[in-house]
From TrEMBL:
GO terms for biological process: acetyl-CoA biosynthetic process from acetate. This is Acetyl-coenzyme A synthetase. Residues 110-170 form the Acetyl-coenzyme A synthetase N-terminal domain. Residues 627-705 form the AMP-binding enzyme C-terminal domain. Its EC number is 6.2.1.1. Residues 179-565 form the AMP-dependent synthetase/ligase domain.
Length: 743
């Protein structure tokens, strides 16, 4: 998108709004009348509708957008806290009260900041970076980049020569600023009533103790440490301890199989692995130490031996007596860490020194070790957290993601703590002991910012709303969505039921590779469209290109790329820079290729359509799986859907839909036909599913990601090629789906 172009959709909206009095803060529509004339909510709603119709060009073909928002006969809008969002409302405006206190309170303010971040990225990011502690400032060149493989090796550097430490900025800096007694972490255990907390001073002390232990056992700057822990407080402690001494942490989701863990150990060759003996997830006990033992046995056969396995004694899940032990290698965490000093010197590192490795697994080939460095990542995660959630010092923030994924790195540990935030860390399952657990936690800790995955939202939608409404949730101020496009019906339920129609939703688009948010709403600034990620974050210039790599302007659909670098971008794939270039920069020379499809509407809003490999080509029609899924879940008896492509002898590819029904709804041929008709009506006959496969549940990781490669194998009956299903939250779902294949 060309920000400077007069024909830019965003600029068209802003210039139209520019006639409103800039001196009056508040929501967009409330600027039209003086306060004495804004007498009633109904007047306000009418006012917003009038303003919307005049100033925002509605997309009449909204039903054809990938998110399947449904046909809307006329442009409507609601104001936060005044009305429910329904199928007839496609714009949700921030209220005067919310905008008045927001960090970014208007489209004009956003545009000014975004324009500066594009015109003067060095100055923009330098000003923000200067708010953090640097032992030594970076040189005259703030950043250097080459994103064009035709001009040489891909290279991205930010703040090179600047010397800092992210742990120091997360902890010491906050303690020195007087936040030592502020709660850093509220920890909620799997079982009701099991909890703990740490202040910033206490967290710093425990981080220093672990850091001293690692140093005492030979871990130095640049050495790798693998962390295979559940969501105990010891997980962020371990990450911060590694960062403090310049070690490179590689967190592996504590749900990966021994084979998957061994692959990662063999690739990064850690000196130490940190784990615990077991964890309870819901009613289920998982023996993590046994998985680590098997992985270490396998890696040693491949020539990679790990000298120390530091094991946390999680007595709530199992006992020491029931934990198998390898003398000379295994060490109990509690037996040694408490003996170490509670202060530890900081290892100052260059901004471009490695911070962490995070492996992303594909359906084939070895995992990709995404490498993030220190300085740019630090600045970017802190800034995105601050603005995308409109963070205030009084907020209590809860992200339901596991630190085994990038969301847990950027928005459980680093981003929040760089802002001195209070964070909730939850060990258990969101539906244990029942579907009201999330809202019980929200009320218990007075959570004000709640960030979760659309899959969890849809899962909770299946259950009675009473699980939500029996709790107060009055503390909630901002909601957030991460991991995949959120379909409009789930967005509306999240907004109306969970947020009581008063909490904006930061529907974020980003990736492991980007480090932080790339396209996201800013609460208080822009009206939202349910299902749209809205507009790019500061310093981000998304472009939509066609198959030939030609940029498409205005309303369009195509491949989502990014022009130019940003501070949080990953720098390489560990040990395989060629794969880094081939995967992300060769498909469209001169751009970072996200691998995602995207549409932009006439108002400039971005709509993510899912992975490009999740786009199905049916008789020449390119259909995003997210588009079909959104149409299916509009059916009143459909709780969730996942769509994959299968070979079709006539059409090339056919559409295969796995459908989860609402609780108690029986399978029937009439319902199957009704679901197909829903898609035909919403999108068109060409998008009608060829097959509806009943699904009591979908194969998901604990973080809520649907494992589509497993669905593809089931749909194509390649059952012998299902691969590793150990990371699923419920592996038994796979057998249920196979049993229903011919129903």
């Amino acid at each position: 998108m060309k920000i400077a172009s007069p024909s830019s959709p965003i600029l068209t909206v802003v210039s139209s709004l520019g006639s409103l009095d800039p001196k009056i803060s508040g929501s967009l529509g409330s600027r039209i009348l003086p306060a004495t004339q804004r007498s009633s909510p109904s007047d306000n709603l009418l006012l917003h509708r009038t303003m919307s119709s005049n100033y925002l060009r509605h997309v009449e073909s909204m039903s054809q957008l990938p998110s399947g928002a449904g046909k809307i006969s006329q442009l409507n809008a609601v104001v936060l806290g005044e009305s429910l969002a329904s199928e007839d409302n496609d714009l949700i405006f921030p209220s005067k009260e919310f905008s008045g206190q927001a960090l970014i309170s208007s489209p004009q303010q956003y545009m000014e900041m975004h324009k500066r971040s594009m015109d003067d990225p060095a100055g923009f990011w330098s000003d923000i970076a200067s708010e953090f502690y640097w032992k030594q400032k970076w040189g005259d060149q703030v950043f250097s980049e080459n994103l064009d493989v035709r001009k040489g090796p891909i290279s991205i550097e930010w703040f090179k020569g600047g010397i800092t430490n992210i742990c120091y900025n997360c902890l010491d800096k906050n303690v020195e600023a007087g936040l030592g007694d502020k709660t850093a972490i509220y920890w909620e255990g799997n079982e009701l009533g099991v909890d703990a907390s740490l202040t910033y001073s206490e967290l710093l002390q425990q981080v220093c103790q672990l850091a001293n232990y690692l140093k005492d056992n030979g871990v130095k700057k640049g050495d790798a440490v693998v962390i295979y822990l559940p969501m105990l407080m010891e997980l962020p402690i371990a990450m911060l301890a590694c960062a403090r001494i310049g070690a490179v942490h590689s967190v592996v989701f504590a749900g990966f199989s021994a084979d998957s863990l061994a692959q990662r150990i063999i690739d990064c060759k850690p000196k130490v692995i940190l784990t615990c003996n077991a964890v309870k997830r819901g009613p289920k006990t998982i023996n993590l130490k046994a998985i680590v033992d098997a992985a270490l046995d396998q890696s040693s056969k491949d020539g990679v031996s790990v000298g120390i396995c530091l094991t946390y004694d999680n007595s709530l899940a199992t006992t020491r007596e029931n934990t198998k032990w390898h003398n000379g290698r295994d060490v109990w965490w509690q037996d040694v860490i408490s003996q170490y000093p509670t202060s530890c010197e900081v290892e100052w590192v260059d901004a471009e020194d490695p911070l962490f490795l995070l492996y992303t697994s594909g359906s084939t080939g070895k995992p990709k070790g995404v490498l993030h460095t220190t300085g740019g990542y630090m600045i970017y995660t802190a800034t995105t957290f601050k603005y995308a959630f409109d963070y205030k010092s009084t907020d209590v923030y809860w992200c339901t993601a596991d630190c085994g994924w990038i969301t847990g790195h950027s928005y459980v540990t680093y981003g929040p703590m760089l802002n001195g935030a209070t964070v909730v860390v939850f060990e258990g399952a969101p539906n244990y002991p029942d579907s009201g657990r999330c809202w019980d936690i929200v009320d218990k800790y007075k959570v004000s910012i709640f960030y979760t995955a659309p899959t969890l939202v849809r899962s909770l939608m299946r259950d009675d709303d009473k699980y939500v409404t029996r709790h107060s949730r009055k503390s909630l101020r901002v909601l957030g969505s991460v991991g995949e496009p959120i379909n409009p019906s789930a967005w509306r339920w999240f907004f109306n039921v969970v947020g009581d129609s008063r909490c904006p939703i930061s529907d974020t688009w980003w990736q492991t590779e980007t480090g932080g948010f790339m396209i996201t709403p800013l609460p208080g600034a822009w009206p939202q469209k349910p299902g749209s990620a809205t507009f790019p974050f500061f310093g981000v210039q998304p472009v939509i290109v066609d198959e030939k790599g030609i940029e498409i302007e205005g309303e369009c659909s195509g491949y989502l790329c990014v022009k130019g670098s940003w501070p949080g971008a990953f720098r390489t794939l560990f040990g395989d820079h060629e794969r880094y270039e081939t995967t992300y920069f060769k498909p469209f020379a001169g751009y970072y290729f996200s691998g995602d499809g995207c549409s932009r509407d006439k108002d400039g809003y971005y709509w993510l359509t899912g992975r490009v490999d999740d786009v199905i080509n049916v008789s020449g029609h390119r259909i995003g799986t997210a588009e079909v899924e959104s149409a299916l879940v509009l059916h009143p008896q459909c709780a969730e859907a996942a769509v994959v492509g299968i070979e079709h002898e006539v059409k090339g590819q056919g559409i295969y839909a796995f459908v989860t029904l609402l609780e108690g709804v029986p399978y029937s041929e009439e319902l199957r036909k009704s679901l197909v008709l829903m898609v035909r009506n919403q999108i068109g006959a060409f998008a009608a599913p060829d097959r509806i496969h009943w699904a009591p549940g979908l194969p998901k990781t604990r973080s809520g990601k649907i494992m589509r490669r497993i669905l593809r194998k089931i749909a194509s009956r390649q059952l012998e090629e299902l691969g590793d299903i150990s990371t699923l939250a419920d592996p038994s779902v796979v057998d249920q789906l196979i049993a229903l294949a011919d129903v």
